[in-house]
């Protein structure tokens, strides 16, 4: 079987598994890039000719050659993601018994530096909420509506930790105003109920009851209508929310930190873990399938670590040793 044909079948299997459109596109682009390199440099087109050395050579090639799009060297994290896409493909062809012997067993993904990404503090949060004012001052009703919408968006991101795509996809039917719960379409085509605090829900309620009808230009609302609207009454898009956070970055003057929906998510996780919420509850709140990803956010809660370290500092061990220095037995001579 040709490698290109195997890739086509692999992509179809991802679609059957309800992989996201973005995920499928990423697999397709990176695997086609790999097979193009394989054909040009090794003349290999058949799956039976694929070897471990080719996988390792691909990673070495990525390390040595800049991106075709940006002309800049690929970061270690990007190279790791290219390798991961290839590894998933190799696991699949092995499970489907398309090749006689496994080739991925000794293929190791390159390590990459996990950089510290600073998150917001309480002052930053106040700045974000204060910077939500939007719109032409000569159109006060529209300005109030857009401002209320923005505050509801920022509040939900900070309070619930949901992802940008999840918030952009919210419909009116997904909001339970009595239980303070959102029905969120998670990764992997899963639906999950996500709780909202009273403080987080209040700006959303104000927007929906007092200002959304103005943006929609109608008092009639259908259950499948989008929650968040743009100034023309259409659904606020993924890109529209990204643009909002770019404007918030400029207005707040927050420096040295990413002003983005994902950093709101990071703030939610680190704050709740620092305040003592169960990691399992935080995991469910964020929609993580395992605790391993949640634990990465736990590593950012330095305040708790500082207090714990102060309590158990090795430099205090001497005092403790002196207090506990008692005789080993009832003798006093060797």
TrEMBL record:
- Key word Protease present in the record? no
Q: Which InterPro entries has this protein been placed in? A: CB (IPR044068), DNA_brk_join_enz (IPR011010), Integrase-like_cat_sf (IPR013762), Integrase_catalytic (IPR002104), Integrase_recombinase_N (IPR010998), Tyrosine_recombinase_XerCD (IPR050090)
Q: Can you tell me which family this protein belongs to?
A: Belongs to the 'phage' integrase family.
Q: What keywords are annotated for this sequence in UniProt?
A: DNA recombination, DNA-binding
State the CDD domains in the record. Answer: DNA_BRE_C
Instruction: Indicate the segments forming the Tyr recombinase domain, all copies.
Output: 115-310
Annotated region (Disordered) at 312-334
Positions of the Core-binding (CB) domain? 1-94
Q: Could you identify this protein by its name?
A: Tyrosine recombinase XerD
* Taxonomic source organism: Dictyobacter formicarum
